[in-house]
Amino acid sequence: MTAKDFEIVMGLEVHVELNTETKIFCGCSTAFGAPPNTQVCRVCLGLPGALPVLNEKVVDAAVKAGIATNCEITLYGKQDRKNYFYPDLPKAYQISQYDLPLCHGGYIDIEVRGETRRIGITRIHIEEDAGKLIHDGEGTLIDYNRGGVPLIEIVSEPDFRSPEEVGAYLRKLRAILIYAGISDCKMNEGAFRCDVNLSVRQRGSSALGIRTEMKNLNSFSFIQKAIEHEAQRQIALVLSGGKVVQETRRWDQAAGKSVSMRTKEDAHDYRYFPDPDLMPIVISTTKISQLSSELPQMPDARKAHYIHHYGLSAYDAEQLVSSRAIADYFEEAAKGCSNVKLLANVMTTEVFRLLGDQEASDSAPPFDATLLAALVNRIEDETIHMGIGKKVLGVMWSGGDHPDAIIEAQDLRQISDLILLQSIVDEVAASNLKAVTEYKEGKEKAFQSLVGQVMARTKGKANPRLVGELLEKAIGKER
Asked: What HAMAP family would the database entry show (predicted)?
């Protein structure tokens, strides 16, 4: 038996900080970045005699998340105390939900390698966040500002079989929550973080293996690395005759491995019971209808529109709707674009490359969408080719002018003069007989070398399509 005989089975628990102005059970601010322990009160510190009062906007946000992820909404629910002792939890219990979560039985569809996969959502429940431990080398400090910040926890079914599926799901889920307006999902601020429950089993088996849980992963790249390492660790352990232990682990990025934190608790270890200080949560069907009507067009609806109206592939459409800011920008640019498929290609390649890491923000290019449409139109009408278009886009990104002005100012117009190009092609072919012979023998790289020499002699401005056609004819004449 080898590693190839095993498959990974994963489920995710995603914790999302809601964008309410105040905490879940008190009036303290939820603003990020305040000095330590300046946004706390008797309630969120759990001082004797303090009573929590549920923030109604937290319930509304959670129900919107449930509607947006195809969940059923629990009409009569409650809140429970999850009992455990840890320094970042001043009450020694967390107010959460156990057997009656606000939302349950949902799903999200994702695109992976050209195929659609449906990931089940077991439940979405509300709870309070804990404080933050700060390790300074000499000891540990605690900032309770985050304690009591409202969270929703979104628990998936164990439907994941690869890091790519996890990445696609998290990006799709993050987009849905941003579209719904219930969280900014800034991973660098801890507003969107993920726990991965992972086990391995022999391919073809339906039994679940012993799982480990990796906590509070807040980067897409860290999540993928953590999954790959932990899967390899468990498989190696099983192949060597060992046994996987149910435990909680953390990802040590510096060491490039997961590290054991503690044995993994089961539900009964938390001694859940209904919180006696909080009333039941009752949601009417009228309220659900109202909250549903407040949701904007969601990613899947936009995706379907892009496929049917613009003729985009499912993959390109999925990429464009992964950010509400990008989708809005794309639709605005499409209004003035002669080739929307080309626009989509430019956005999913060059624009995404320039935007870089989208985990920290939900942003669009730093110039008006009409300017990107104008650039794409110049590529489409062959005023410039895609290679020059990348250069113009870079200038625009740095605060440059209209693409037409940049093209004229830097003399970037594409050369399509057949007589001029023919003479250059003939010169290149005549002075590179070895490359010509190699191409005739089937070496494609030799042809690309010839094209590259023509482009170099024209400072990159020659029409690539015409260069290719003329070279083919020139080489053909010499056969």
From this structure: GatB
Angle between helices 324-334 and 369-380 in degrees, nearest 10: 50
Rounded-to-5 percentages of helix, strand, coil across the chain? 40, 20, 35
The string of DSSP codes covering 329-373 is: HHHHHHTT-S-HHHHHHHIIIIIHHHH---SS-----SS-HHHHH
Q: Measure the CA angle with vertex 200, ends 195 and 203; round to 5°.
A: 135
Long-range contacts of 332-335 (CB under 8 A, 24+ apart): 332/369, 332/370, 333/369, 333/370, 333/372, 333/373, 333/376, 334/310, 334/373, 335/373
- CA-only gyration radius of the chain, Å: 28
In DSSP terms, 154 is beta-bridged to 14, 124
Look up residue 156 and give its two tokens: 């998936």
Name, in order, each residue with C-beta under 8 angstroms of 331's C-beta and a sequence gap of 6 or more: none
pTM of the model: 0.84
pLDDT, position 459: 77
| Domains in the chain: ranges and CATH | 3-291 (no CATH), 297-409 (no CATH), 418-477 (1.10.10.410)
The answer to whether residue 441 scores a pLDDT higher than 70 is: no
Tell me how far CA of residue 349 lies from CA of 105, 344, 372, 394, 441, in angstroms. Answer: 36, 9, 13, 13, 34
**465 token code pair:** 């399509």
Neighbours of 137 (CB within 10 A): 5
First-residue to last-residue Cα distance in the chain: 56
- The beta strands (E) that lie in 39-114 are given as 72-73, 76-77, 80-83, 93-96, 103-112
Position 465, amino acid: R
**Residue 126 parent element (H or E):** strand 115-128
Please give the Cα distance from 160 to 315 (Å, whole number).
Answer: 19
For the stretch 409-412, contacts whose Cβ atoms lie closer than 8 Å and that sit 24 or more positions apart, written own/partner, are: 412/384, 412/388, 412/461
DSSP letter string over 231-250? HHHHHHHHHTT-----EEEE
pLDDT digits (tens, 9 = 90+) for 356-409: 865 545 788 999 999 999 999 999 998 988 988 999 999 999 987 899 999 988
Strand 93-96 versus strand 6-17 pairing type: unpaired
Please give the Cα distance from 453 to 428 (Å, whole number). Answer: 7
259: which residues sit within 8 A by CB, 6+ positions away? 249, 250, 251, 252
CB 403 within 8 A of CB 378: yes
Cβ-proximal residues to 258 (8 Å cutoff; 6+ apart), any chain: 212, 214, 226, 229, 230, 233, 249, 250, 251, 252
